[in-house]
C-alpha cells in the first residue's frame, strides 16, 4: 500500500536554506580562524581521528572550502542530494572529533545529529520530482 504524503515545496526550500546557513558560517570561520580551529581539534580527546587525515591546518582549510562550496550548492538547490552527501561526509568527522571528543554538554552533539537528520532528508528523498 502506498501512502501519499503532502509536503509544501516552500517548507523544503526553507529547510534547505536553514541547514545551509550553518555550513556557510562554519566554512567561513574555518578559513578566517585556521589556527584557532586547529587548536580546538588538537585539544580534543579524539584528535587522533583528525590526524589520520593529515595536517590539522590543511584539514581546517580544506573542510572550510568544502563547506562553503557544498553549502552554497545546497543553498541554491543545485545537485542537492550530492551536496548533502558531501556536507554529511564533512560533518561526521567534525562531530566525532569535536562534539564527542570534547563532550561537556549534549547540546552541540544533538545539534549536529539534527543537522545530519536534515541532510538525510535530502539524501533519501528525490525532491526534484514534482510534489503531488
Strand content: under 5%
H/E series, N to C? HHHHHH
Radius of gyration: 16 Å
Could you list the spans in which at least 5 consecutive residues all have pLDDT below 50?
none
Overall average pLDDT: 87
The tally of helices reads: 6
Q: What report would you give on this structure?
A:
Helices cover 74% and strands 0% of the residues. The protein starts with 8 loop residues before the first helix and ends in an 8-residue tail after the last helix. It has 132 residues and is mainly alpha-helical. The longest helix is centred in the first third of the chain and has 24 residues, at 9-32. The model has no long low-confidence stretch (mean pLDDT 87). It has six helices and no strands. The chain has one domain.
Summarize this structure briefly.
The chain has about 130 residues and is an all-alpha fold. It has 6 helices and no strands.
Q: What are the SSEs and their pairings?
A:
Layout (H helix, E strand, L loop, with lengths): L8 H24 L1 H9 L4 H5 L4 H21 L3 H21 L6 H18 L8
Helix pairs in contact: 1-4, 2-4, 4-5, 5-6
Keywords:
single chain, 132 residues, mainly alpha, elongated
Amino acid at each position: 500500500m502506498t501512502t501519499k504524503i503532502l509536503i509544501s515545496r516552500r517548507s523544503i526550500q526553507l529547510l534547505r536554506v536553514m541547514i545551509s546557513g550553518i555550513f556557510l558560517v562554519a566554512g567561513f570561520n574555518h578559513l578566517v580562524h585556521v589556527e584557532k580551529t586547529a587548536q580546538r581539534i588538537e585539544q580534543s580527546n579524539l584528535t587522533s581521528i583528525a590526524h589520520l587525515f593529515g595536517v590539522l591546518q590543511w584539514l581546517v582549510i580544506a573542510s572550510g572550502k568544502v563547506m562553503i562550496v557544498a553549502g552554497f550548492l545546497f543553498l541554491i538547490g543545485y545537485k542537492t542530494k550530492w551536496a548533502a552527501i558531501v556536507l554529511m561526509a564533512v560533518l561526521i568527522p567534525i562531530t566525532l572529533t569535536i562534539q564527542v571528543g570534547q563532550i561537556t554538554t549534549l547540546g552541540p552533539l544533538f545539534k549536529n545529529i539534527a543537522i545530519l537528520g536534515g541532510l538525510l532528508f535530502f539524501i533519501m528523498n528525490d525532491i526534484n520530482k514534482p510534489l503531488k
